[in-house]
Amino acid sequence: MRVCIGGTFEFLHKGHKKLIDKAFEIAGKNGFVFIGLTTNKITKRKKIGKINERQKKLQEYLLEKGLFNQVLIKPISDKYGPSIEGDFDAIVVSPETFETANEINIKRIENGKKPLKIIKIHFVLAQDGKLISSTRISRGEIDKNGNVIKDD
Question: pTM here?
């Protein structure tokens, strides 16, 4: 199966890894995963790591998991990337990006393409029961695994 995902993958935290792992699980051993890595110009956060640094962290994680031969990582400059026109079977999203996946399917159908199977994973929560996010990590509230560093 051909699966697509996308994001900033800033700090490559536990939530990102869950999304990536699910994409490869859905793709299967003979499948393929496209990872759209958002460029700095379309991110909501003002300060974000350089795209080549974020891509390097993704590559290291995929090599460590033995998945590097099943992936293509490319920069994307909008929230859809190649998902509208691309040859994909499924998309894995978080609750935050679920609506975007629905928009993608509407556009695919309008363009005569088959809709993608949408797989929505749950958010990953930190030790304090709040969402793990790159914003919280950058603020020094939690680490990449969701362990609390400081209390509010």
Answer: 0.93
